[in-house]
Design a protein that fits this description.
Distance between the termini: 83 Å
Strand content: 5-15%
Oligomer: single chain
């Protein structure tokens, strides 16, 4: 019996040795042939896919000796700090040690901690970060109340101030700041910061590239809003909004701005009712690097002010969503039911969008570079006599290089859809049949996919996935009858009808628009017909 146990132990040791030899073999394990730099990159991709789960980074260092060595020496693998482990936060301390000199991304969530525990928790976190504060490049604070947010941000800024007996400030590498106040109270820093501390606070906030404020705000005159590349404001209360001159100063101080996103967070206008005076007094600011502009759920005059203020000749993506009424500070609606320069409110905003796109290209003498356009929740109407949305048509005419168009909850009309799917026939040699090539894409448009959500009943035929994909329907069973198939009328010279046939009514003129369109997404569109979606 003893001998049998010894044999089993020897067999287990042999298996472990064989496993170790196999894992270290270049022939049996091809992954071992990969360079350390490639393995490091693979580890980083895995951690990003796992949304920086601490366990994922740890597992990379527990596979085999070689992988462990590479993982431990990859400092950027250990730079995401979120204090998700329990006190005394040994795993967080391990990550900080392995991050070495790499720039850190710190995420602090205080939404599940009551106010009485917040201060002790924040102090503990700042003590752990300690000497690493100068390496923090990205800071995200997600708090349940403005008190928690203020405590955390104040504690961080205090760590960046000169300590007693020293003259050097701990200069943070902070480039990205995201502050979230779930309660939406309004301010991330209390107004009672001493005048002595204020210069150090502002110095720490200087040099940011990316700022996101959700339900909270910073002093709008602070250096946090200078030289930004990305600015995202979400859900700001009326009292927390920047005034008109403060917003203009922010745009002027960020000439390198690349992305501007405002969701339920606009500005307080000096004159919210006189749109003509606003246009006359607004001097456009050129933002040559702005490639993405997102305006969602702002009052219509705030939207129009921003569109008049900004020139963006290299804009690639434009999102315009849900213009709302203009509301006074006391809650009364300024423009309830009234027209703006003879147009309903939302149609006037559409007209301003078209002017914005055309004006931004006026100095370049080139067509718009806009590739993606999203328009949502516009209250526009279409009459039975004129089945079109003229202001939407003007917007689409201004974007000939558009690749993706998303329309949601807006009256479109058959004319717009027919123009989007209009095709230009290929010239044929006189005297020869001009049969379309098999499965050939349209000459003027090649929309490859349509995502159609919640299309109303009755169902539309042909299905939207075939919309404007081919110039003609292909009939594999009877190629000789191709000329009898129904095709959409397009703007071209019609041939003289045969004398034995009664002349048909002259087809209406359709102007092709957006010839580069590849993706069309329609959602909650209730005013289209099957004829408009036919190839």
């Amino acid at each position: 019996m003893v001998e049998l146990e010894k044999i089993e132990q020897r067999m287990m040791r042999a298996r472990r040795e064989l496993l170790g030899l196999r894992n270290s073999s270049l022939h049996l394990v091809p992954a071992n042939k990969l360079l350390p730099e490639i393995l490091s990159y693979i580890f980083l991709l895995g951690v990003e896919q796992a949304e920086y789960d601490l366990d994922m980074a740890e597992s990379d260092s527990e596979m085999c000796r070689r992988w462990r060595t590479i993982a431990i020496n990859t400092a950027t693998l250990w730079t995401h700090i979120d204090f998700s482990d329990h006190p005394p936060h040994n795993l967080t301390r391990l990550f900080l040690a392995r991050s070495k000199g790499a720039i850190l991304g710190v995420n602090l969530t205080l939404t599940d901690i009551d106010d009485l525990e917040s201060e002790a928790h924040i102090t503990e976190g700042m003590d752990i970060l300690g000497e690493h504060v100068s390496k923090i490049g990205s800071l995200t604070v997600d708090a349940a109340t403005d008190m928690q947010l203020d405590l955390l941000l104040t504690a961080f800024l205090q760590r960046c101030e000169p300590q007693p007996g020293t003259h050097d400030q701990t200069r943070a590498a902070l480039r990205k700041l995201k502050l979230v106040d779930v309660s939406g109270s309004g301010y991330a820093l209390t107004p009672n910061i001493s005048r002595e501390r204020l210069p150090f606070v502002f110095q720490t906030l200087r040099g940011l590239d990316d700022v996101t404020l959700e339900g909270t705000s910073l002093p709008w005159h602070s250096p946090a809003f200078e030289g930004l590349k990305r600015l995202h404001l979400v859900g700001l209360g009326t009292d927390a909004l920047p005034f008109e001159d403060e917003f203009v100063n922010i745009i002027q101080n960020c000439p390198l701005l690349e992305k501007l996103k405002l969701e339920e967070a606009g500005l307080t206008l000096e004159n919210s009712s006189d749109i003509v005076k606003m246009r006359r007094q607004t001097h456009p600011i050129d933002l040559h690097r702005l490639d993405s502009l997102h305006l969602s759920t702002l009052s219509w005059n705030e939207m129009e002010f921003i569109l008049h203020l900004i020139n963006a000749p290299n804009l690639k993506s434009l999102w315009i969503d849900t213009p709302t009424e203009s509301v006074n500070p006391d809650g009364t609606i300024v423009d309830e039911g009234q027209e703006i320069e003879g147009l309903p409110r939302d149609e006037h905003v559409l007209k301003t969008v078209a002017v914005f796109i055309n004006r931004s290209q006026a100095d370049t003498f080139e067509s718009s570079s806009l590739h993606t356009l999203h328009i949502e929740s516009f209250d526009t109407t279409i009459t039975a006599d004129d089945d079109t949305n003229p202001h939407l048509m003007e917007v689409l005419k201004a974007v000939p290089n558009l690749n993706t168009l998303e329309l949601c909850e807006i009256a479109v009309g058959d004319v717009v859809l027919e123009s989007l799917s209009a095709v230009t026939p290929t010239p044929s040699v006189p005297g020869s049949p001009s049969k379309p090539p098999s499965k050939a894409p349209s000459m003027s448009t090649s929309i490859s996919s349509i995502v159609s959500e919640q299309i109303p009943s009755p169902s539309i035929y042909p299905p939207p996935t075939s919309f404007a994909q081919y110039e003609f329907d292909e009939d594999d069973d009877d190629d000789e009858d191709w000329a009898d198939e129904d095709t959409m009328e397009v703007d071209h010279d019609s041939s003289t009808p045969h004398q034995d046939h009664i002349p048909s009514p002259r087809p209406k003129k359709i102007i092709p628009i957006c010839p580069s369109l590849q993706v069309l997404k329609l959602e909650l569109i209730h005013d289209i017909t099957r004829e408009a979606l036919r190839c």
